[in-house]
Structures are given as structure tokens and as C-alpha cells.
Design a protein that fits this description.
This protein is an alpha/beta fold. It has 13 helices and 20 strands.
Length: 356
């Protein structure tokens, strides 16, 4: 491997015989993943060059293939990697990071991008909402479906040795689930419901179960619901269509909508009791057909919830309170990323991983 620094860029290639072979990556092209070769760049001082170990396929990655955010680069934002180098930092800082196994926060804010002065949200410490942010594998920054990626050192979190790669690849979505605990004092509720039985919904239910005696997961896939019951979460089977609006009678003061479907919001509003709190986690391409009158009439508190605290997610994994590995359906080699993302869209499939 050779490193060539040119105008603060690292160009990384591997040697194969007498030729230099560019690195493998996958990019979004006409709603499909296309294999390509790229030069990986660490653009600014304080940025890390990271060799990918494992990446997770998320519903957001699938929505990107459908046009979400009109993204055209390399997707992928759930990953475990190993720091290979850091640009223009002291020897002590480089020693502290190089060789470390890491997960990375996905929002890249003003300071890391070199903007001065920083925006009003960054001044308030709300870097996840930076007005000029790039988002790993989602907005303007190439993601983890590649052999190498780059992120600022300030975005990285060292993974303890006691956490396997298979568990650590869940740190980013598990942190998103933990965000609910930061946004709400859940102890004021006796119970909660999670609408949806997919990967994020499963993690949310597990996080809420660490704080509440009763959590009910509503979903339409019996095998997925069985995974939740193994984690001591109560489950209820629904049909996943408009008939649920009349069939589901139970109401909750705290409900999290995580179906990943535009149709989930109507049922979520129906299931949230008057003066209750509805947390929205779904992201998808397109509009959701929804009436707002239930929010007004029932005086619901509606909270949008996105990224969350990595330190709390890592602590939950390290303590053993949450083990996400039963959610893994299959692992593919990185070279088979298009087949992996096609497989991830099949009915009944949970987490699909890519390994280098």
C-alpha cells in the first residue's frame, strides 16, 4: 500500500504485480449499486483514514436506492473499521488512534469541514443539525460500502475489545434508539408501544425495555416478533394495512412509530392516547398520506427522533443488557454488495452485513 499526500489528500491504492489497483467501492447508479474503483481521500487535518471491517445495510440505504436525498455516491453509514492513518495531527494523537477499532457518527459538522465561523446550531452544540453538515453515505459524503472511508477523528468512538464486530456494527442504529431516552423522561410512563418489527424497531424496543417494565412491539411478521419475545418484549400481530385502524384497540401514552412505511403514521396516531407522546423514527422516500386532525384533537406531543448518543449505545452492548446479534440474517463479502442489498429487501429478512 502506498500513501501520497497531495494538497491534503491521501490517495490509497493496493499493489497487484506491477500494476496499481484502485480500491473497491460501490456507488448508487440508476437505483442500483454499481461496482467501481476509487481513490480514497482524507481531505483535512484531523481526518482519519479507516479500513472497513464490517458494514450494515439499513433501510435508509434501501431508500437511497429509491431516490432518498437524491444521493449519488457510496452509501452505507453503519460500520466497524480500523483507523489506518490520520492527516496532519501530532505523533501522540496519531499513536492514540492508529490501529484502533472504531465506529463513527454520521453527521460531519462545520468545524470538521473547515467552515469559520461555525453555524448557529454548531455554536449551540447541536452539531447533528449543522446547517452545512454532510452525512456519511447519505448527504454529500461517501459512505461505508467500500474498502476504505474517511471521517473526522472527532466523529470516531473506540470499540472495546469485549464487543464483537457483529455486535459493534449495530452501534449507530442502537444510538438512534437511545436518543429517545435523551429526548424524553421515559420513567414518567408505565409502558410503551413500538409500531414496526424491523431492525430499528427491534432495537428501540430493547432500549425502552431497559427502562420500562412493559414494552409492546406491534408487527406483521411472526418470525420477527419471535425475536422480540426472546428479548422479553411483549408482541402483538397486526395486518399492516388500513384494517388495523379498526382492529387495534389498545392505546398508549408513549408510542414510537418505526414501521419505515408511509402508512404507519395513521395507525400510530390512532394508537396514541389523548395527551400522549408520539415519537417518529421512520425515514422513507416520498410523502406520507396523513391527516393532522388527530394530533390537534387529541393534543398529541409529536417528536421527531434521529441520531443518538454513541457512548450510551456502546455501554449497553458492553454491559450485555442488549445483544443485537440475533437480528443478523446473513453476512456477505463486500464484493457481493449488490446481491446483499437485494437480499436485504426480501420479506422476513432482518440485518444483512457486508464484510471485507
Amino acid at each position: 500500500m502506498r500513501h501520497r499526500n497531495c494538497d491534503r489528500y491521501f490517495y490509497i491504492t493496493f499493489r497487484s504485480g506491477k500494476d496499481w489497483t484502485p480500491l473497491l467501492a460501490f456507488v448508487v447508479n440508476h437505483r442500483k449499486l454499481k461496482r467501481t474503483n476509487i481513490a480514497v481521500k482524507a481531505r483535512r487535518p484531523g481526518w482519519a483514514l479507516i479500513r472497513l471491517r464490517m458494514a450494515g445495510i439499513c433501510n435508509t440505504d434501501i431508500e437511497i436506492l429509491r431516490g432518498y436525498h437524491n444521493f449519488r455516491g457510496t452509501p452505507g453509514h453503519e460500520f466497524v473499521g480500523e483507523v489506518q492513518d490520520a492527516s496532519e495531527v501530532s505523533a501522540a494523537v496519531k499513536k492514540r488512534w492508529v490501529g484502533k477499532r472504531v465506529a463513527g457518527e454520521i453527521n460531519i459538522a462545520c468545524r470538521a469541514l473547515g467552515f469559520q465561523p461555525v453555524c448557529r446550531f454548531c455554536k449551540r452544540g447541536l452539531t447533528r443539525h449543522c446547517e452545512r453538515r454532510q452525512v456519511l453515505g447519505i448527504v454529500a459524503h461517501n459512505g461505508a460500502f467500500a474498502e476504505y472511508l474517511t471521517l473526522p477523528l472527532e466523529s470516531l468512538h473506540v470499540i472495546p475489545d469485549s464487543i464483537s464486530d457483529e455486535a459493534a456494527v449495530f452501534i449507530e442504529p442502537l444510538a438512534a434508539a437511545c436518543e429517545i431516552l435523551d429526548q424524553l423522561n421515559v420513567k414518567q410512563f408505565r409502558e410503551a408501544a413500538v409500531l414496526g418489527d424491523g431492525k430499528l424497531a427491534q432495537l428501540i424496543a430493547r432500549v425502552l425495555r431497559t427502562a420500562l417494565p412493559r414494552v409492546v412491539l406491534y408487527g406483521k411478521h411472526p418470525k420477527k416478533l419471535a425475536l422480540a419475545r426472546h428479548a422479553k418484549i411483549e408482541t402483538k400481530l397486526v395486518r399492516g394495512n388500513a384494517t388495523d385502524l379498526k382492529r387495534v384497540k389498545e392505546k398508549f401514552a408513549l408510542l414510537v412509530e418505526a414501521t419505515g412505511s408511509p402508512s404507519g403514521l395513521a395507525l400510530a396516531q390512532e394508537m396514541t392516547e389523548a395527551r400522549g407522546t408520539l415519537v417518529l423514527k421512520s425515514t422513507f422516500h416520498g410523502a406520507a398520506p396523513v391527516q393532522t386532525w388527530p394530533i390537534v384533537v387529541k393534543e398529541l406531543s409529536v417528536i421527531g427522533s434521529r441520531c443518538g448518543p454513541f457512548d450510551k449505545a456502546i455501554a449497553l452492548l458492553q454491559s450485555g443488557k442488549i445483544d443485537p446479534r440475533p437480528l443478523i440474517t446473513r453476512t456477505f463479502p463486500m464484493q457481493q454488495a449488490p446481491a446483499a442489498i437485494a437480499f436485504a429487501q426480501k420479506p422476513g429478512v432482518m440485518k444483512v452485513l457486508l464484510r471485507t
